[in-house]
Amino acid sequence: MLSLTIETKAMEIKSVASTSLCGDTFILELAPKHISHLSWQSRSPLSIANEKQKRLPQVWNDTETLINSGASHILFGPGETNDNVLPTIQKIELKWGEGFETIKSNAELIIKSLELEGDILDNWEKRIKSLQKKAETREIKPKVLYLSRSGSSAGSNTFVDEAIKSAGGLNVVKQTGWYKPDAEQLIKYTPDLIITSYFDNGYESVEAVAIRSKVIKRFIYSHPVVEIEGGLWPCAGPGLIKAAEKISIALDSLP
């Protein structure tokens, strides 16, 4: 009975509540057995949680809500914090980034705080290295364009660009960061592959320019297209690896 009590307390000490979709993506991969609460976004179309996990209680960055969760650890999304939670609650604050290095550093924060095994992180690194090695063998780098449901695209220094390069593609967008080309700018691009996202599972509140514009829609579907589900993109989390793998496979299938 004593050993059972000790084991139960140990499990309670390592319970974690996530306040953001970004945090959800990490703990669903790294610590599914330690989750007490997922974020307020965990039941949205962009959540990677399975049906059972979507029934877990939800929290957001509200002091009373977090304290009442009873979690020993609170995982905050990039840019989030809360100085009013009890000092007995351990805070894990994710950092914003646009590449695989941030995935690694954020994962290490969680692994260290929750005292987890690092096997899955080793697996992620192997997958990334495998992608990059394959990318180096491509004699010709296919040109790739990213377009979201809202008609936005991504240039250098974005996690989408990181995924494209790691897959062995060349981003046709030369601008830095995120931007929204108009239809006239867009049709001047000559990509070998177009990546679409949020077309099938995007937020309805987002202006669906890429779906409603006949010119843009015609341009998209006159090229080979791969849809990368929006749930893989949040804050350059572990889903970025799978996104890069899917792009790599799409590049393999090009003529």
Structural class of the helices, strands and pairings? Answer: alpha/beta
Biggest sheet record: 5 strands, parallel
Q: Assign an overall shape.
A: globular
The radius of gyration computed from the alpha-carbon positions, rounded to a whole number of angstroms, is 20 Å
What is the overall number of helices?
Answer: 10
Provide an overview of this structure.
This protein is of the alpha/beta class. The protein has ten helices and eleven strands. It has helices at 2-13, 21-30, 63-69, 100-114, 119-136, 159-167, 183-186, 209-212, 214-220, 239-252; strands spanning 16-18, 35-39, 58-59, 73-76, 90-93, 143-148, 153-154, 170-171, 178-179, 193-197, 225-227. A five-stranded parallel sheet has the order 3-2-1-4-5, sandwiched between helices. It has a four-stranded parallel sheet with strand order 8-6-10-11, covered by helices on one side. Strands 7-9 form a two-stranded antiparallel ribbon. Helix 2 links the parallel strand 1 (16-18) and strand 2 (35-39). Helix 5 runs parallel beside helix 10. The longest helix is centred in the middle third of the chain and has 18 residues, at 119-136. It is globular.
List the helices and strands and how they pair.
Layout: H1 2-13, E1 16-18, H2 21-30, E2 35-39, E3 58-59, H3 63-69, E4 73-76, E5 90-93, H4 100-114, H5 119-136, E6 143-148, E7 153-154, H6 159-167, E8 170-171, E9 178-179, H7 183-186, E10 193-197, H8 209-212, H9 214-220, E11 225-227, H10 239-252
Parallel strand pairs: 1-2, 1-4, 2-3, 4-5, 6-8, 6-10, 10-11
Antiparallel strand pairs: 7-9
Helix pairs in contact: 5-10, 6-10
